Amino acid sequence: MIRSFIQTLLSIPIITILLTSAIPSGAKDYILMDEAPAALDLQGWENASFPLGNGYMGVSFFGGVEKELWQVTDPTIYANSWEKRRKRHRIGLSSAVELYFETEHEHESVSDYSRQLDIMRGLGTTTYVADGVTFTREQLTSYPANVFSARISADKNGMVSFRLRARHSYPEPRRTVQADIEGDVIVLTGMTEVLKTKYQARIAVEVDEGDIKVSQSGNEGIVEVTGANAATVCLTIGTNYQNKPEVYLTSTHFYGYSDSAATPPEFEDKGKKLEGNPLPVEAIKERLTQARAKGWESIKQEHLADFQPIMERCSIDLGGVLPEIPIAEVRGNYKSDKIENPAHARYLEELFFQYGRYLMAASSRPGTLPAGLQGTWSWKESAPWTGGYWLNINFQMNYWPTFSTNLTEMIGPYLDQLQAMYPRHQYLAKLYAKDELGKEVDDVWTVGHSNHAYDAAEITSKGGIGGGPFTLLPLWDWYLFTGDTEILEEIWPLLYKSSRFLVQVMQEQEDGKILAVPSYSPENKSPEGVKVAKGTAYDQQMVYEGHLMTLTAARILGKDEPLLDTMRDHLPRLDPVMIGSDPLGAYLMEFREEKAYHGGSHRHISQLVGLVPGTIISQKPEWIQAAQTTLNLRGDKSRGWALAHRLNSWARTHDGDRSLVLLDNLLSDRVYDNLWGKHAPFQIDANFGGTSGIAEMLLQSHVLQDLPDEGPLGFEDFNFLIHILPAIPKEWSEGSFTGMKARGGFEVGANWESGKAKRVTVKSLKGNAARLQIGDQVQEIKIAKGEVGIFDF
Q1: Which end of the chain is less crowded, N or C, counting CB atoms within 10 A of the terminal residue's CB?
Q2: 457/542 Cα distance (integer angstroms)
Q3: Nearest to 645, CA basis, from 696, 600, 596
């Protein structure tokens, strides 16, 4: 039985091998806690508020005693703000509405105050004692009910009294607003000035005993509750936004220039994008009606049944112990705790891993918009860089941990967004070929850099023609992790038309190389001091990855399309990895024009996209070594997302101690007290990239055994290397993980002591063969579909 189950390549000293149909779970609690409210200003929001979300909305709560704020963001509401100093208007993700919850208690007069966010349950709690009475506020955003709800209670009857003020964020002059009362429901209706996005929020309060009064004052709705045992607040919100190609067929550049706060002329026609889309009032109303009928306990239990299993699918345990101190102190003590109290340092690392998963589950769910630069949270009139989908690394990085950390369904909105922008990006691809190269091409696709929920962008110097395949790598991983051919069929048009575009805009050189001309390396300049270059590492590596994906997918799906032969011809002539010489050793060149290392400590490491998220650099040990030299030259200090990219890259080179240095720098210098990523300002890609980097330290599966050279392919032909603890640092000498995913269709768990694996569990979801690597030893395994192999060492 064992012989048929395992064929040994290199003997691993296995003590026992067992088969089972279940895989153990090891989730534990992770809490963000503070002993004081966040300040009710933009700095307090960014640094200390706690986020809730369900993809349809993001809600930040501050935990105030005399005044709490539930600040609500709908990711489809973009507005323009006036930057007087620069004399420009900026369109970006905007705050929608604000609920101010006011009591007669004062923070200075209460005791036992605590504000918490339980990320494993998606539940926020604020508690304190006033005049001998314990008051509790629980709050959540439910995905099944698409509602925000809060429960206010006290441990003595008749003690719940408050005033709730519901108001629009940033009312006139840049949005028209009104407040109405329908029975006992507050209705806030508005429309943004530039994009003409219509929205409506409906708020209701249910009380257990006591008195309630609902009224209106100008553009605010007010609820006054006195003498209740408990109360439940419910909010639903919706807009007339529909994520369809029509939204993107006209451009919406996010800057407009004007000498005054008046709307600039170039913004005047933007409102046509949503023309004819009705505001779904009845749907918004019905969600609120259903939520009120369910009541708090049913809403909460439905939410927990949805959210908690998602979070518990995957866990890591590095020996962390929950510190009973505010999260700001946990983060502030991190460097010293690594020496004096390592269990607290390990807890912060575990918490940060799960926090990235939490933010993904809170901002990208099936049917919602995807997570942008700020996820689904903005209290600003317009978010920096629109809060949109930046495609020279940021949007892609958001989704790096999706598969490895067992959040597969969260990738759906990423694909939905690309499909909605697809016709516009096709048009822009044709325009690029004509304007830059004088070529007429058809049936092609690419992406530009600065996209958002109202605009699909063209190629600029901030990206390059490699942006298309760079954007498709997460979708290709969807197939590699799951073997889902229906998904592969769905992404095939993107794969093929991306490569079809590339083979027509690449240019053959005198030495036979096929290069991108013009070519760019994101946000950097060549040694000549100009942005435009020839055959940058970024473009060449991504074109290589793109053609490889397309050619492999064609064999799986049985496609026989024009230009596939041209792609096969181009592939070996792309010269994607260029080696330069430096006193530190051989390094990876970013620009073909380099005579010596160029780029200083630039935040982008675009010459390493073939290492992460790509795979080409992993093909040769000397390339991996050159990547390490490049990382040394770039340095370990940078922006939040840039540190996350370096963290992932060091993990791919199997240097665990250096990976931990990057994680240390990220946690110490580039997250806020609420652990949001810090560019600055707040930028969520550091969170997602950080979670991905920790996963890469514990498990890697990107190395693929050579596929058959010719003929059809099936998922069963993919034999990946499942590498356990590839970049484990000395400080993580003991630990475990469960529920992580590996390419080839596997769910993996492990525990280790003294830095060495003691038990590994591998559940086969498809019945594929794989190679299991422990340390330097590799073993071929094949486990029946649905069964679990347990390996004890």
Answers
A1: N
A2: 19
A3: 696
